Amino acid sequence: MKYIAFFIVCLLVAEYSVNFWHKRDPDAAESREFLATDPAVVSAVGVIQEVSFMQKLSYEGTPTDLGYVQFTYSVLSTTGESYLLRLRKYTGTTVFQVHELSEL
Predict the structure, then answer these.
(1) 65: left (phi over 0), alpha (psi -120 to 50) or beta
(2) d(Cα 69, Cα 52) in Å, to the nearest integer?
(3) How far, rounded to the nearest angstrom, does the alpha carbon of residue 74 sit from its chain's CA centroid?
(4) Up-side HSE of residue 9: CA atoms within 13 Å toward CB?
(5) 51 burial class (0-12, 13-18, 19+ CB within 10 angstroms)?
(6) Of the candidates 13, 49, 34, which has an alpha carbon nearest to the alpha carbon of residue 95?
(7) Which pLDDT score, from 0 to 100, does residue 38 have?
(8) Backbone angles phi and psi of 96, in degrees to 5
(9) Which pLDDT band holds residue 65 (cuts at 50, 70, 90)?
């Protein structure tokens, strides 16, 4: 029982740490702002009720391929539908782009 409680505490600390980091990451702040205001996202999802951070991926690129930073979110609309949303910002650009938007 003691090990289960310790495991749960470790999970909660890890989740808090990731959320704390995500709220202070400048790219993450830009991606959340983009997510809330992009016409393609708003028209597909509708009114957004909840946004949950899932993953950040950074790719440095190669001489022939641009690098990017990618954020993956789970988005819940007010109608109760859930969506998986991946946003990318390529090296040398300042704007995020919707890479994938699919219904869960």
Answers:
(1) beta
(2) 17
(3) 7
(4) 6
(5) middle
(6) 34
(7) 87
(8) -80, 155
(9) confident
